[in-house]
Amino acid sequence: MRKNKYLVLFLIISASLSVQTQEINSPYSRYGLGLLHGENVNTSLMGMGGIAIGVSDPTMVNPGNAASYAVYDSTTFIFDIGLSGNITNLKTTLQSESSTYVSLDYIMFGFPITKWWKSSLGMLPYSQIGYDVKIYIPVDKFSNVVNEIEGDGGLNQFFWGNAFKITENLRFGVDAAFIFGQGSRSSKVYFPDSLYIFGTKTINYTRGSDFIFDYGIQYDFNLNNNRKLTLGAIYSNNWKLNAKREYLANTFTGGYNDVVETLQDTIVYEPDEKGTISIPQRFGVGFTFQEKERWLIGADFEWQNWEKYTVFGTSDSLDNSWRIAIGGQYSPKHTSISSLAKRMYYRLGIRYTNSYLSIFGKPINEYGISFGLTFPLKKSKTAIDLGFEYGRRGTTDNDLIQENFLNFSLGFSIHEHWFHKRKYQ
């Protein structure tokens, strides 16, 4: 009966998302692959600043380090689902505007295969593209010329992870992820004060798909019966995604001030050009220090070689990126009959990302401050997770855009002993 309730809850959430999902709105997603999803891989980790490399929790699917799957109980099946939302305020030195979106963020499963081999399946975003910017350019004899740039789409990943318990304290894992998706980027130049000058529009569609592999390792130092130090590391080498792109340029009239856009002539059309997208290598290290079922603190450092990023053989002038995160969680000492407040987990974290973007000599970096809560259900290992993050991306210097954002996440973590035979009914 309880499993049926969870299934109904999942279907209700999925149905509501089908009508509520919207696109992100960040002009900085125009570059590279867009906004990367690597900072917060699930709701619980989001509340701790996104630390993941040294985290090994038997109640959580953690694709931030594939080695973590090896700590699953040999009789437990884990189902994690998360919803995410965002409120962003974009501002320059002259104006500001706000945007919101809500979406299904991830669906993940964790389960044992043998006592020493555990596995995981899941789907989550890899990158997102979404922006709509109008640039007004003063020109002699016209009040202005408008350049409107738009983009949407992104990449998703479906992963199958496997982790192996090498010794009592050492574990190794690998995620095989199928990356797929498409992005659309367009640029439109038009003259709103003249009906006799044609505008020009260019559209670039890019589709990509292929497999990439991420490797992880973790080692535990057991300090006593309750406390341990875990060290972790991850690595992914350079991968090339097979891709196709389509380029179209045409002239048009209208398309602004409620005037219907009318195609006049096609200038260039290049369909189905084949090539590759190069995703560069990355590595990271992290640790956690914890007392079982009480508290945990940890930190991550991650670096990626984005200077080697290319699309169809052309570089995108990106910088190498790095990220540092620090966070932890705490639960008061409790028993099974303690109040909810004593059985909850309370989380806090910070992160700083030196992104792969630098515009007009200004690095487009970001930081986030996060906190989270876990509400455990009585007589069950199932829990409801909440995560919140306030942060900033970019700057208003040199007429750039500063994004102040609030990310929030709602997660459901369901645990069942599906492989355990009951002695009593």
Structural summary, described in words:
With 425 residues, the protein is mainly beta. It has a single domain (25-197, 207-243, 279-416), classed as Porin (Beta Barrel). Helices cover 6% and strands 60% of the residues. The chain has 3 helices and 21 strands. The chain has a 14-stranded antiparallel barrel. Strands 17-18 form a two-stranded antiparallel ribbon. Mean pLDDT is 88; it is low at 15-21.
Q: Tell me the number of strands.
A: 21
Rounded average pLDDT: 88
What CATH architecture do you see? Beta Barrel
CATH-defined fold name: Porin
Our count of helices gives: 3
Q: CATH top level?
A: Mainly Beta
Q: What fraction strand? A: over 45%
SSE order: HEHEEEEEEEEEEEEEEHEEEEEE
CATH superfamily: Outer membrane protein transport protein (OMPP1/FadL/TodX)
Described by the principal axes of the CA atoms, the overall outline is: elongated
Spell out the blueprint of helices and strands.
Elements: H1 2-20, E1 35-36, H2 43-46, E2 77-91, E3 96-112, E4 117-139, E5 142-165, E6 170-190, E7 199-222, E8 227-236, E9 239-253, E10 262-279, E11 282-291, E12 295-304, E13 310-311, E14 314-315, E15 321-330, H3 340-343, E16 345-354, E17 358-359, E18 362-363, E19 366-376, E20 383-394, E21 402-416
